[in-house]
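Quick entry between incubations.
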Amino acid sequence: MSVLVFADSSEGKFKKSAFEVVSYGKKVAEQLGSTIVAVTINVADASELYTYGAEKVISVSNDNLLTFNAKGYAAVLTQVAAQENATVVVVDSSVDGLYLAPLLAVNLNAGYASNVVALPSATSPFTVKRKAFSNKAFNNTEINTALKVIGLAKNSYGVHENAVAGSSESFDAQISESDVSVKSVSIEKASGTITIADADIVVSAGRGLKGPENWGMIEELAEVLGAATACSKPVSDLGWRPHAEHVGQTGKPVASNLYIAIGISGAIQHLAGINASKVKVVINTDAEAPFFKAADYGIVGDAFEVVPKLIEKLKAFKQS
Amino acid sequence: MKILVCISHVPDTTSKINFTDDDTKFDTNGVQFVINPYDEFSLTRAMWFKEKQGASVTVVNVGNPTTEPTLRKALAIGADDAIRVNAEAQDGFFVAKQLAEVVKNGNYDLVLAGRESIDYNGGMVPGMLAAILDYNFVNGCISLDIDGASASASREIDGGYEKVTTELPLVIAGQKGLVEEKDLRIPNMRGIMMARKKPLNVVEPAEVVANTVTASFEKPAPKGAVKLIDADNVDELISLLHTEAKVI
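Done. Structure below.
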């Protein structure tokens, strides 16, 4: 009996979600009186996971899986789950986690709940709370199969240190040609910037900025805060900013600790995509903008005056 | 090429979300239902394959008779025929199993769906369907071209996109990018008239036991009112974010 967690990585480095998934899996294992086993794929040194409670780490090295491959990764986890007699498998709900988990669930004849936001509220029947209705409600879901797959929503449980003396062993996964029948040709990725998925803070701006030439101050604010930049849908539709920055219902979801919306009115489709953020700040000239109803803190004011002041004061704050 | 487009029947984005029966059922009272926005991208791409590459396009939904207007709308947009699997969708696995039966019976070689539905947001049906059928699968798909049995696609990843190649038979979970939003089709009068005459076949469901059950729904705790800060006093905002919200 074990709780298996998949610690996802990119280019040999753990993603932040890996530590959250391990922290969560450790707690679930305690609830079930079971033990935690973490799985890594093509990570040279997995000892970092011990810090978050992973007592046992299974490391898989495979040349067919040098970049993410949903079916191949699902095959690895299926094989390890069988060896470790897993009853629960935890993955993240990133684009990769959401890609591989349904394949894994079918392989394992497991019930699957995605976008789970809390520890199981009961273990019999096994019940988890997950997001539904585009963040406008939660669904308490009972999973009735012997084996369960949980997709943990980003930033919902948090990273908790719980250092253990862990051990690591390697596992020889059998990956056939049909497991990697979707082949990666190329990966286009902006380098050196923080991705929206990874960011603790997201600075987002809308049409209130009047034109793409005014994004300098948004980028500077993001830099001061160590934040990712994002934009509203009209802005990406107008081509002021790349599509990859579009957040909202049809764009990327945001679940950061802090979301700062500048010159964004807060259409319902936008709010649906960013509502999972913990703290929301709005800066807008229009005091009637719907975003003020969704935000925790708000400034009614002109972005062109407020943002430069905010940058200056934040710089001073960071130095103190 | 035989294409099957999976259509979810979902509450319009602006709907009020409420629950009945002791918070176990979604309250459909006064709710307008639409084609799931993610599915619209896939449906429009299917129309392109129909017009440019001679594909046939069938749309399918798993649901009770109230979902038929949504299927008729898909027919009005240009699908050739529709199938409704006459069952309440119980969970993602249940729906995937029903769809798998439809795919097997109709020998579809390309299945287009949306990345997730905007009501249950599970994002699991396309992947499960691919796994059940042992079809190839691309999730979060933002471009798709088919040449014979070869497919080239892109999918969204954190901070960018990945180009992949694969082969039919294939399941695609699409989203914005698969076609641009401005290119989404809206039914015209001629389409609506023609849709009335197109076949909408009702099939009885396969026997499937769902893996999960919704025990209850709940709404997020009501949010406190926004704290307004004077535009001349950004120091206060910084201090609140630091000491009260503890996010910087």
